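Cross-posted from the bioinformatics board.
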Amino acid sequence: MHPMLTIAVRAARKAGHIIARGFSELDLVKTTNKSENDYVTNIDHAAEAAIIEVIKTSYPEHSFVGEEGGEQTGKRTDYQWVIDPLDGTTNFVRGVPHFAVSIALRVKGKTELGVVYDPIRDELFTACRGKGAQLDEFRIRVASAKDLNGTLLATGFPFKYKSHTPAYLETFNALFQFTADIRRAGSAALDLAYVAAGRVDGYWELGLKPWDTAAGELIVREAGGVVTDFVGGHNYLVSGNIVAGNTKVVANILKTIQPHLTDALKR
Ligand code: IPD
Ligand code: CA
Ligand code: CA
């Protein structure tokens, strides 16, 4: 294993341990609102601090961007760790056992490794650029659907951007005509990891942040899939609009949703 991946996995497991313990004593968890419908807990903060501490022990000069702590610029600005310590906080606080730790390393702006860890199922999704993707020690690949017929898709609802609901629901309606079903499970990092593992055929969501997608995006690509923004480009880390799946599924999702996008979403 790449030495930096070993460290990322160690950090993810440590955060996972903090999260699992917090989940078993939910009545002790302190939840606050960051903004409307957007929650953060003391566990999110503790998990992020633990991840950064583990990585800094080995790489004290690296830089960090974490959902809760923001940017920490180290001497090495070319090495940046992108961290979502707890992706799926709403599930966590409501006792729904579906959430993950997401850690990616970007070197000179390129994602080199990604880890998505589900502490409840003890499932570890990893990828190193050019080396494929794994679930635990097993190689994973995206599913082989040739079009959208009979597919199972994942999505997220735009609960932070409710002005986009009408356009989003049009995309949902258009895709739903073809699919077997659609899941809204509540963790973007796991949605991407599940695309990589072939558990779902494709995924789309709008308005995500880089820490939601940085690790999962590499895991999908290393599992043979593609990730684009809503116009088939690579601007998703900026726009937050993401489509993932195998080449044919992504092409079909793009073709199906594009007639329904407002100008603000055409990116
Ligand atoms: C959220 C989850 C959710 C997605 C939201 C994200 P958080 O992350 O990934 O599935 O729909 O947009 O913000 O806030 O739980 O880390
Ligand atoms: Ca997140
Ligand atoms: Ca989070």
